[in-house]
Amino acid sequence: MYREHTKVIKIGDRVIGGGNPILIQSMTNTKTEDVEATVAQIHALEKAGCEIVRSTVPTLEAAKALGEIRKRIHIPIVADIHFDYRMAIAAMENGADKIRINPGNIGSAEKVQAVVDKAKEFGVPIRVGVNSGSLEKNLIEKYGKVTAEGLVESALDKVKMIEDMGYDNLVVSIKSSDVLMCVRAHELLAPQCPYPLHVGITEAGTVYSGNIKSAIGLGIILHQGIGDTIRVSLTGDPVNEIASAKQILRTLGLRQGGIEVVSCPTCGRTNIDLISLAGEVEKMVTEFDHLNIKVAVMGCVVNGPGEAREADIGIAGGVGEGLLIKKGEIIRKVPEEELLSTLREELANWK
Ligand code: SF4
Questions:
Q1: Ligand 1 within 6 A of 297 CB?
Q2: Total-model pTM
Q3: What is the pLDDT of residues 217-259, one digit of tens each?
Q4: Is the CB of 323 inside a 6 Å radius of any atom of ligand 1?
Q5: 302 CA → ligand 1 middle, Å
Q6: Rounded to an integer, what distance in angstroms lies between the CA atom of residue 149 and that of residue 110?
Q7: Cα four-point dihedral sign 199, 204, 208, 212
Q8: Does 260-348 carry CATH code 3.30.413.10?
């Protein structure tokens, strides 16, 4: 397990690396300068279970706003910096818990040194981020195109540059929208990198394709013991990313807790609106993340009761009603329109 041997890095009041639990990150898509909108979005992300948030800091106004935002949220905030080293410095002066830079687009070594000096002064970790879209020309020429080997060489070069400047409070990320290239790059990087890795498939796409690409890419990478924080990148409301990230971690056995909803695919025997009900149940159970149980939403009384009995609690649909089944016992019949509220009530009083 590579992740057990990465360096422990403190980000605000959280720790990553060294085998600590894998944390879920997301990124705001509001204008960071708009404090109210950004705080509101971070609160929604926190409620969904986001553990570290990143916001872009393209202006000095955004750096100042970051300071205000930080006072009103409850999770560490990472400043995302591109091109202008002064934004990195301003973000740290305004309380950023971590900064993310690609030293390759910051400019001269002096500018990178100025950022590193400020990070040292404030004890702020730096995420060195390398992206397939911005791989250096010489590495593209060396390997003939953008490759996993090129990405890894680029990341290790940047890490060495910062280490040579006397700083090792680092996190590393390499991202590609090509899932298999991203997997390969992580397989090459992990044995050579002592720092925690932030893992994500970049520009993964919409909720549909992004979820599939992320589940495959993150699944393969995480299952090899690689990765200390993750982000599922989806085009849309970032809150959607959190449920997907949690589901990926749970499916891999890397996170306990939370309710697992199983539901049947429906068939000609289904006589209730199970598709809507299953969707509503999936949303509703996010309120009960402290419970570690399985909820079954089954469509019929032929196979349903048997399947629902395997779960901690479940319903099996009939005609305009459903059976409520708890710990293997049929409890009672419930009218269809009360199935959701009945399940919610049961979960709220779960012992
Ligand atoms: S549980 Fe019943 S309704 Fe659902 S797929 Fe199976 S047989 Fe069909």
A1: no
A2: 0.88
A3: 999 999 999 999 999 999 989 999 999 999 999 999 999 888 8
A4: no
A5: 7
A6: 27
A7: negative
A8: yes
